[in-house]
Amino acid sequence: MSADKHLQSWQERFEMAEAMQPLLGKLYRNQGVEVVVYGKPLLNASTIEIIKAHRLVRRHVGEKLRLRESFPFVQALSKLAVKQCKVDIGKLAVNYWRDHTDVSEIESYMAKELADAIDHADDVAPRDVVLYGFGRIGRLLARLLIERTGRSNKLRLRAIVLRGGKKGDLEKRASLLRRDSVHGPFNGSVEVDEDNNAIIANGTYIQVIYANSPDEVDYTKYDISDALIVDNTGIWKDEAGLGLHLKSPGASKVLLTAPAKGAIKNIVYGVNEGDITAEDIIVSAASCTTNAITPVLKAVNDKYGIENGHVETIHSYTNDQNLIDNYHTADRRGRSAPLNMVITETGAAKAVAKALPVLAGKLTGNAIRVPTPNVSMAIISMNLNTETSKDELNEYLKDTALQSPLQNQIDYTDSTEIVSSDLVGSRYAGVVDSQATIAEGKRAILYVWYDNEFGYSCQVVGVMQTMLGLTTLSLPA
């Protein structure tokens, strides 16, 4: 292919991706239809991101999916009365083109494949969400909720609750939402309404409320009712402390974005969200590390069985450490985070058992905090019940990442060049680094990357949806 033909091919793909964008936006905003390509979300995706999502199809099925082949499916989808679902046009297009050579039957094919979502009764009322705390996880949850803004959105961010309230606080909070040193600028506009003490982000009106205790707020004063309170502070971790939220008028359920104490259910989305019942009013989304390792451990245990194992977490430093040496109540965490590797404890290995009871008592764990601001790694060393090899284990995990019910939690890479900063913004709970896999006989060691901020926040959103009964139909099945 000549240089001119390469440029022409790129131009065609770019223009096709640009033509997709308004259709994808309208489908979500007006019908609640989220379009993906083999699990990669196209909602608010740039033209380059749409092109990259199509290029990844080769990894899934061994063959290309051209934008000119998928575009007719987006067009056909926009003509169908499909509502409140997630549609994988990548899978639909690949399956169609295996048996067809022209576009004449695409609309009828789509109508058949998406029959369960056509004229689907949209009788689920939107639910209010309040973020109690607005730190690293709180602001990323805000970004994720705001990107889904639209008439058909059922998960509505209504307020954030903060301690403080000093002069200039509101603009400072808005500025932290606008700009992030790790995750980059906010995708849109953020305005401040000083008179009403609110932040307006991409049309989402977010009431800012100041309080020193969870039971001090009357949410009904802000027209907020039956709300899910997402506690991002980490201050209250047991039923008594988190139960304080439920004393506030307008609050109905509480989700903790940290491991919980006592009998509170620790949920890893994709693994045990089915344990959530309508009666559960306080739930924990566990920790970032627990979310990263549990889906992989489940996959391995389902096929090979795990006799025992150890998880060593190489974790980016966090806000509970000191920038320079200073007093800290925890061992070693008082030493400068950007200058040291710091050995510390983690409850992630034990917490796995709450989400995956079959592994109770089989895992130990430890952690090393390292001088990076985001993206961590779990090294999982296991003794298996069944023999395997590196190639066999990798092939199984690759198939799990692409085809199984855990495909939204586990990603897989065979890159020999990937490093931690490449995973900033990953929406997966964990990413298996296949090049580092060690397996011989019944002994296996896996290296799992995870964006301990953004990937975890995506998992939290899944738990939020489950708690509020806002699960989405995914097609094709």
TrEMBL record:
GO terms classed as biological process: glucose metabolic process
Gene3D superfamilies in the record: Dihydrodipicolinate Reductase, domain 2, NAD(P)-binding Rossmann-like Domain
Start and end residues of each Glyceraldehyde 3-phosphate dehydrogenase NAD(P) binding domain: 127-288
Coiled coil: none
Xref: InterPro entries: GlycerAld/Erythrose_P_DH, GlycerAld_3-P_DH_AS, GlycerAld_3-P_DH_cat, GlycerAld_3-P_DH_NAD(P)-bd, Glyceraldehyde-3-P_DH_1, NAD(P)-bd_dom_sf
Top EC class, one word: oxidoreductase
Keywords for this protein: Oxidoreductase
Record keyword Oxidoreductase present: yes
CDD domains reported for this sequence: GAPDH_I_C (cd18126), GAPDH_I_N (cd05214)
E.C. designation(s): 1.2.1.-
Pfam families the UniProt entry points to: Gp_dh_C, Gp_dh_N
MF terms (GO), sorted A to Z: NAD binding; NADP binding; oxidoreductase activity, acting on the aldehyde or oxo group of donors, NAD or NADP as acceptor
UniProt record similarity statement: Belongs to the glyceraldehyde-3-phosphate dehydrogenase family.
Protein name, entry field: Glyceraldehyde-3-phosphate dehydrogenase
The species this protein was found in: Shewanella morhuae
Underlying gene: gap_1
